[in-house]
């Protein structure tokens, strides 16, 4: 390679780098207005409202833990929202195949008489992907978004295992119990038995 060719190649690389550096960054705009971008997906998903903070003592393991409500983007104090009555907390991600089977089962369980409250926690996947999946599955359970990275405040507080889905029973007294058997629900009888067994 001649000296002139090397200089021409170097100049071309610098020119391309300069052009890339000057291009507008689409990611900055979307980060500045996430709620506007998610409005159509939220409308299509039509999720039930996230639980509001009650007067009972917060769930100790989740005290001070906040997450965004997937349905409207508002902040949810998870420890206060789950206080005072039993609840089933289900941690899921949009890429998780067993979650896709389990979410409709949890939706069906939540409609049954005597069912405890169910709260979904979307993790490790973009909020829009979660909303699109829930809309596709016809699942309208109240859900919070715990971030799309490898960790989030809810996951950290619950010590969620790496394999998903993961479910927890929060008792009326504020105890949090991991449901190990079964790890994934395929029918409402399993959900009901697991809730009763962990109560």
Automatic annotation (TrEMBL):
GO terms for molecular function: antioxidant activity; oxidoreductase activity. Keywords: Cytochrome c-type biogenesis, Disulfide bond, Redox-active center, Signal-anchor, Transmembrane. It comes from the Bacteria. Gene3D superfamilies: Glutaredoxin. GO terms for biological process: cytochrome complex assembly. Residues 33-199 form the Thioredoxin domain. The keyword Disulfide bond applies. One of its GO terms (cellular component) is cell envelope. Its main location: other. It is found in: Cell envelope. The keyword Iron does not apply. PANTHER family: THIOL:DISULFIDE INTERCHANGE PROTEIN DSBE (PTHR42852). This is Redoxin. It comes from Amycolatopsis vancoresmycina DSM 44592.
